[in-house]
Amino acid sequence: xxxxxxxxxxxxxxxxxxxxxxxxxxxxxxxxxxxxxxxxxxxxxxxxxxxxx
Length: 53
Known about the structure:
Layout: H1 2-52
């Protein structure tokens, strides 16, 4: 029975690690998407400035 408890504990720890991994990947993806939006907005502003000249 003790080995079953160890297996369950190990699985719980692995699930926790997977949850943290997914959360970190989501944060990285959010940051990349925000950076992409910022770059696109910068391009739009540059085009608007150039059209005024």
